[in-house]
Structures are given as structure tokens and as C-alpha cells.
From TrEMBL:
InterPro entries: MFS_dom, MFS_sugar_transport-like, MFS_trans_sf, Myo-inositol_Transporter, Sugar/inositol_transpt, Sugar_transporter_CS. PROSITE patterns: MFS, SUGAR_TRANSPORT_1, SUGAR_TRANSPORT_2. Coiled coil: none annotated. It comes from Panicum virgatum (Blackwell switchgrass). This is Major facilitator superfamily (MFS) profile domain-containing protein.
Amino acid sequence: MSKPDASDGIPAAEAPAKRPPLNKYALACAILASMNSILLGYDISVMSGAQLFMKKDLKITDTEIEILAGIINIYSLVGSLAAGRTSDWIGRRYTMVLAAAIFFAGALIMGLAPSYAVIMLGRFVAGVGVGYALMIAPVYTAEVAPTSARGLLTSFPEVFINTGVLLGYVSNYAFHGLPAHLSWRVMFLVGAVPPVFLALGVLAMPESPRWLVMQGRIGDARRVLAKTSDSPAEAEERLADIKKAIGIPEGVGDGDDDVVVVAHKNKGTHGEGVWRDLLLRPTPPVRRILIACLGLQFFQQASGIDSVVLYSPRVFQKAGLQSDNNSLGATMAVGACKTLFILVATFFLDRVGRRPLLLTSAGGMVVSLVTLASALHAIDQRPVGQATPLAGVSIAAVLAFVASFSIGMGPIAWVYSSEIFPLRLRAQGCALGTGMNRIMSGAITMSFISLYKAITLAGSFYLYAGIAAAGWVFMFFFLPETRGSILEDTEKLFGGGGQDSSREDERDAPKKSTELTSSQQ
């Protein structure tokens, strides 16, 4: 009898699971949905150049310019808060069409405005459209994307925000040679072109499968999931998880696609009671999720990114770049750097996870902001014309800041917020996060000039560095990793039971009923 080999009891090592190829249909849906975010990026950056010509043409003051530049972020609150209920009522897809239509109207009003008051009206209309687009794009993408590529695809809205920023700078450069009364108008009117094509493109997209299940359209949801999942087995698993989260009994809707489950009697399919479960009587896991979302969105904007994007020419002038050509070139470099480094997060989100990128990003922002503030402080202490090396340090620090922001804080704030809420709370929860983001953006951009006049540019960036450091601590202790988790189970990471265990579902579970009807599709 042969002696047994000592290695017989050791299981053979398994080859690492191969990543499935990227689902091209889900990729196309994510790109089309995320392109709405171009509107926000374009509007922010085009204002940096348009304001120069508006001031000459309309004879308006710096204070009026400051308000005009930042107020759109406050106006966008209307759209972002309304988008949650709207998307639960008419669907994610038609909400994106509505966003494009509203922004189109706003761009026309701004471009044709005869006075400051009418421009402000146009900013309000455009702001509502921006709020809608900013909230709905990551929600739709997260709900369509397969688990293996959710981080990649949900980061696309930030990619297109940065693309919009770059296009706005290009528009400033392209039309700055026109007469003052035409140049700023053309810059705004060009912004009315993309929404037309975006609305048409969105109409070719499918509806979110999770929204379809909420409306009882199981057959439609199954067909969408079959196209956007990595395998038929994953499609069925995702459908089962969604049905369980909604409260549809197991086995219902598993037969013929012509069978439609009417879920309208289940509370929450159109957003009823959600605000109560989010704000008034949240469960402990939901409360922690809400704090995570609001905190992440707060620190994303409070660290000063929009001040750098909108007022970078002033920063560069302070650093010693006095000519318009040099300042414009440096500003273009900011846009290009911000857009380029967003691709780092796009490719690594699903490989290394959300937490490592967030913490690396916040750490890099702290270092670059301290470096920038220190360089500007040193420049203040030297005679004019004797700080040339420090000008280079300042420019490098600004580029390092936007690069650090783009590899983590920029895209992941939207990715993370869109994937942590339970299904029935997701739209309104993300709307609250978007609202926090826009409030902070408006507060930062509308106060930057006053702030640096009060405590100097160096003091302003030291303040932003302190806020970014506090954000690093918050993220380290409060945000769990979500990479690889299915959307219906992310609540477990915050201490919940998963599968949408919000308070109302627990309270009303015995009352839920499902009716079956047959309909010929």
C-alpha cells in the first residue's frame, strides 16, 4: 500500500476569478445618462470668461458678478430636491429629458437677456435644470450598471462634469475676440445646443429596472436586466434582489413576461412617506447612511474646488501671471488636468475600492492646499517681481489640488451616495445629498472674494486645507467600503438588515399585498 502524499489533503489553489468584460449596453446607457452632467461643468467654467464681457457690456459691479456666478448653485436646489419625487413618479429616463429641456430654456434666456434681472431669471431656470441632471444621472447609472462595473460607470457623471468645465474654457477662448455685447451671449447660447441632443439620446435608453419593478413592470425590468447584466444568472439574481427589496413575494412575476405585478398599492412606489423615513423617523442604519451621504457631499465642496475652478485666474494673477494670455493658459491647464485625472478614478474604482481612493484624494488635497497657501503667503512677503519661482510652485500646487480632487473626492462622492441608500429611499436620499452639494458650492463661490479680502488668499487656502483634513478623518472613521456589494445589500454595511429594511417596510410588511393582472405587451 503506497504511502499517502502529504499534499493530498491540501485543496488545489483556484485561479483568481476573471473579471467579466465590460457590458457595452450598460456602458452606452451610462454615457448617455451622464452626459447631462456636461451642463453643470460648462455653466460653471463658461461664467469665468463671460463675466469679463458682461461687466463691460452691462456695466455691472464685482458684487453682482459674484452673486451671478454662484447663485446658480443655490437655484439648483429646487431641481435637485424636486428630482427625487419626480423620478419616482415619471421615471428616471423622463426626468433626464425634463432636465435637458429646462436647461435649454435657461441657456436661451441667459444668451438673449437684455438686462441683469433677466440674466438672473435665466440663471434660475438653468439652475433648476442643473439640479435635476446632477441628481438623476448617478442614480440611473447605479441602478442600470452590473455590480462588476458599477463604480466605473457611476463615476461617469463626474467625468462629464469635467468635460463640461473644459468645454466652457474652450468656449471662453473661442469667442473672446467678438465684440463685448456679443461674446458673452454666444458663450451662453452655445450651451443650449447639447441639451437638444441629450434629450434625443435619452429617449433611446431603457428605463431603470429598479424603477420598473417599483411600478410592477416585472417583464420590462427582466428584459432590461438581461441586456445590462454580465450573465443571465446575474440578471435573474438582480431581479430577485430588487423584488425582495420592494416586498414582492418570491415566485411572483417569475413566469411569463406578459404577467405584470401591480405594486402600486405598496407604499413608496411613487415616493410616498419617504421623507418621513429619511428625516423624521429613520432607523439607525438609515440615519448613518444619511449622515455619510451628507457629510461626503459637504466635504467635497467645502474644501474649495469650485473656488479654484471659477476664480483660478485671480489666483494665478496673485501668483505673478499678470498677462491675460498666461492666465488663460494656466486656467486651461487646470481644466485639462482636472479632466485627465478623473480617468484614474474611473479605472481604479472597481479594482481598489472607494475608501483607498477617497483617503488618498483627501490627503493629496490637504498637502497641495497647504503648499499653495504657503507659497502665496511667501509671495506676499516679497517685493513684486521677485517671487517667480514661487509662482511656479503655486501653479503646480493648484494642478496637484485639482488632480487629487479628481482621483477620489470628485467622482466618488456621487458614486458612493448613489449606492448606499435602500431602494425606496434612494431617489430622495440622493436628492438631499445633491442639495447639500449645491448649498456648499454656492456658499463657497459666493463668498470667496469676500473671504480672501478678509483673510488673504493664503489664509483662505489654509482654511480649505483644514476642512479637507477634517474630511479625511470623517471618511476614515465613518465610511465603509462598498466595492462588490449589490445595491440591495449595501444597507448591511451600515448595520441594517439589507434588502431595504427601512422602518416603513418593517411596519407595513403584514399589510403588503400584490395583485396579478395579465396584460398583452
